[in-house]
From TrEMBL:
Major subcellular site: membrane
Highest classification ranks of the organism: Bacteria, Bacillati, Actinomycetota, Actinomycetes, Kitasatosporales
Keywords: Cell membrane, Membrane, Transmembrane, Transmembrane helix
Protein name: ABC transporter permease
Organism of provenance: Streptomyces lichenis
Annotated TM spans: 23-43, 49-70, 128-146, 166-186, 215-234, 296-314
Annotated localization: Cell membrane
Amino acid sequence: MTGIAVRPAAPDRARIGHWLQRYGVYAGVGLLLVVNTALTPHFLSVENFRTQAVQVAPVLIVALGMALAIGTEGVDLSVGAVMALSASVTALYLGYGLPGALLVVALFAAAVGLANGALVALVGVQPIVATLALMVGGRGLAQVLLPQLEDIRNPAMASLGSGDLLGVPYLILIAAGLVLLVAFAVRRTTFGRQLLAIGDNRTAAQLAGLPVKRVLMVVYVCSALLAAVAGVLATARLQASDPTSLGNLMELSAITAVVVGGTPLSGGQVRIAGTVAGAVLIQLLTATLIKHDLPPSWTQMAQAAVIVLAVYAARGRGRR
């Protein structure tokens, strides 16, 4: 009796996984748009889309820096603490004018980024451990500088948080500009090519003479600066500085946006368009559950399910 050969299904599963990794986030956004259009009253209004875009802007800005760190096969868990620290510093130095406060915020953020980069690039500490230390210490410093919530009454901050240009809020314009800037840096500069090469194979990058340590330092400084921008914008929108809760769990939202957007945790790739779509997916998912009166715990479980699906789709596609 002749045996019947069974064609393995692995290649089909691999193709499906590859498709999900690259395009699943866009399908998810489309599905949520369709569901909300059908079930959520006034979802298609201009005001609703404006609100959703404003709310997603800080997450997106932080996710851009996270994407750079993950692209080097690292991670930055300190971004939420940097947001809190930037809120405290803004409140303390706003009396010197908004430009002066922003300069001090940038200095604090750069110091955190340099500390993260030094631990990772020079000392050789694992990124998750190095940035975890700054995650705890940074938020502690933020609360030492400003122990409690403080209202901010400053015309420049009010304009930054609620102003617009031709009907487009400043928060959206700033986020869009940073997306274009980071995308250009990754795709069109020597720094971007070096970043991807280091994430793909750090040993080979070192043997090829690439400035691995310098690039890693710059990556973590950029991540911290982007988190600081998000912190300032969130503070301006709230018109209050709250170092206790501002940026809480933001690192998880940023990682989710990056991973769901198709950037592998193994490094070597940075998908900026996917990161944007990932941030939008998280915002739409959260807004959908809130609008249908589901508790926040459902949002956390839904995000966990999305992360599991994204990691499942990306499995086996780490090293190239």
